[in-house]
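Take a careful look at the protein record below. Let me know whether the C-alpha cells fit the sequence:
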Amino acid sequence: MIQEFKDFIAKGNVMDMAVGIIIGAAFTAIVSSLVGDLINPIIGLIIGGIDFSNMYVVLSGEVAPGTGLEAARESGAAVFAYGSFVMAVINFLIIAFVVFMLVKMVNRVKDAAVKKEEKVPGAPAGPTQEELLSDIRDLLRSRA
C-alpha cells in the first residue's frame, strides 16, 4: 500500500496540481496588492475618491457616521459590506484574466512546438500505405 501511495504521488498530475496550488497561493498576494494598491485608487479617482473597501450599509445597531467598516463590525452592528463584495469581484476578474492570458500563452507555445515537429526540413517522406501494401503484395506473389 505504501508503494501504491508513492506511485500515486509520483504521477505527473498530482505533482502538477501541487505546484499549481502553491503558485496560486503565492499569486493571491500579488493580485491582492495589485487590486488594493493600484486598481482601487484609480477606480476611486474615477468615481470621485470613493474607497470600495469601506462601503457598507448598517442593517441593525448604531454606528457613527463616517465610521470605517472594521470599526462598525467591532461595535457589534450588523453590516452589509457590499464594498468588500465589489472588491472580491474585481479580484476574481483580474485573476481570471491573468489565468486566461497564461493559458493562451502556454497553448501558443505548445502549438509552435507541434508545428516545428511537423515541419522537419530534409526529412525523407516515407512511403504511403498503398505503396507498402503494393510491395507486400508483390513480395507474396514472387514467393508463390
Observations:
- The domain at 2-121 is CATH 1.10.1200.120 (Non-ribosomal Peptide Synthetase Peptidyl Carrier Protein; Chain A).
- The chain has one domain: 2-121.
- Helices lie at 2-10, 12-46, 69-74, 82-118, 129-143.
- The first helix runs from residue 2 to 10.
